[in-house]
Amino acid sequence: MKEDSKTTIQELKERLKKFRDDRDWKQFHDPKNLAEAISIEAGELQELFLWKDKEKIIKELKEDEEFRKEVGKELADIIIFCLNFANATDIDVATIVKDKITKGDNKYPVEKAKGTATKYNKL
Amino acid sequence: MKEDSKTTIQELKERLKKFRDDRDWKQFHDPKNLAEAISIEAGELQELFLWKDKEKIIKELKEDEEFRKEVGKELADIIIFCLNFANATDIDVATIVKDKITKGDNKYPVEKAKGTATKYNKL
Amino acid sequence: MKEDSKTTIQELKERLKKFRDDRDWKQFHDPKNLAEAISIEAGELQELFLWKDKEKIIKELKEDEEFRKEVGKELADIIIFCLNFANATDIDVATIVKDKITKGDNKYPVEKAKGTATKYNKL
Amino acid sequence: MKEDSKTTIQELKERLKKFRDDRDWKQFHDPKNLAEAISIEAGELQELFLWKDKEKIIKELKEDEEFRKEVGKELADIIIFCLNFANATDIDVATIVKDKITKGDNKYPVEKAKGTATKYNKL
Question: Does B45 touch chain A (CB under 8 A)?
Answer without folding.
Answer: yes
